[in-house]
Design brief:
Pfam family, one: MBOAT
Shape: globular
GO cellular component, one term: plasma membrane
Protein name: MBOAT family protein
Order of helices and strands: HHHHHHHHHEHEHHH
GO molecular function: acyltransferase activity
Keywords: Acyltransferase, Cell membrane, Membrane, Transferase, Transmembrane, Transmembrane helix
Length: about 325
């Protein structure tokens, strides 16, 4: 099991994460130097980093767990499909689990945690209890950003997550007051509501990562400007087939992506982005796969293939160090 999960982690890092790194690095470098990318390029840049960090960090954790098992050491699970989360609290329960546990035990609880003033059956103490809990949630999220670094990007990232945790807590407090038979409570049980929750949570996480990654605040602002206010530009090669879209404001031209992707078409990037969503949202994570793993020929073959491909990529020029080595 140790070698199997190690091979998965190494493949995630050197094949998937480092492929996303090329596009993320090029895009962020452009906006940090004052460039304004169009809408598609901006979203491709932000999503590339979102998936780069996911596969880099999850690969790092898989490799650590795998190496530990090879030496008979069982390390705690630190990463459990966080992009499947339907709210920000669920995201933090599954992202960097050991850091979250540390902050809870040595910061959140000493600050008072959820408090316990409501037992006095007074509206004042109930309100005070809730306010102190909201304060504690924000402080913990804010300091988790400072833990990653003292730059303004990390401060803003931590503050955004702090505000999100506060908003989610208030939302849950209001939800508890709703009648279980109300129309909204019934709507919360539908697939549409679940989908909306995921879209809101994932996009918030993706936007917050922009500040986490950018070397300067202006670069982050430039990228967000392109994401939400940039023009919609498609490759020049599609103009003959989709030229009618120009009436709706769509432009055709040479895209920045074409200078980054080695192929003439940007389809390679699209495939990787689609694969990123499929892997993070619909497939079991590494620990779930290994938990029921049996020694079979096809498992050994799969492991050997992943290791072989990964070793080939390590020898290439696109290999980069683990992102979380910085923290």
């Amino acid at each position: 099991k140790g070698l199997f999960i190690f091979s998965i982690g190494l493949f995630k890092k050197v094949v998937i994460a480092d492929s996303f790194a090329k596009w993320a690095n090029a895009g962020f470098s452009a906006v940090e130097n004052g460039a304004i990318l169009n809408c598609l390029e901006s979203w491709a840049t932000s999503l590339s980093y979102t998936f780069q960090l996911y596969f880099d960090f999850s690969g790092y954790c898989d490799m650590a767990i795998g190496l530990g098992l090879l030496f008979g050491i069982v390390l705690p699970i630190n990463f459990s499909s966080p992009y499947k989360a339907l709210n920000i609290a669920a995201f933090w329960r599954n992202w960097h689990i050991t850091l979250g546990r540390f902050l809870k035990e040595y910061l959140y609880i000493p600050l008072g945690g959820n408090q316990n003033l409501a037992y006095r059956q007074s509206r004042f103490y109930v309100a005070l209890n809730n306010l102190l809990t909201l304060r504690n949630l924000f402080i913990v999220a804010f300091l988790s950003g400072v833990w990653h670094g003292a730059g303004w990007g990390f401060v803003i990232w931590g503050s955004l997550h702090g505000v999100a945790m506060v908003v989610h807590r208030i939302y849950m407090l209001l939800y508890k007051k709703l009648d279980s038979a109300s129309l909204y409570v019934r709507f919360m049980q539908t697939r549409i509501y679940i989908l909306l929750c995921w879209i809101l949570t994932f996009n918030f996480i993706n936007i917050a990562w922009v500040f986490f990654r950018a070397e300067n605040i202006q670069g982050a602002v430039n990228l967000l400007q392109g994401m939400f206010f940039g023009s919609l530009v498609l490759p020049k090669s599609l103009e003959s087939k989709l030229g009618a879209l120009s009436e709706w404001g769509v432009e055709f031209g040479v895209m920045w992506i074409a200078n980054v992707v080695k192929f003439e078409s940007s389809i390679f990037m699209v495939i990787f982005l689609v694969a990123g969503f499929v892997i993070t949202l619909f497939l079991r994570n590494s620990c779930e796969i290994v938990s029921n793993l049996r020694l079979r020929v096809y498992n050994a073959t799969f492991c050997a293939i992943l290791l072989s491909i990964s070793l080939c990529y390590i020898g290439g020029n696109d290999y980069s160090a683990f992102l979380y080595f910085n923290f």
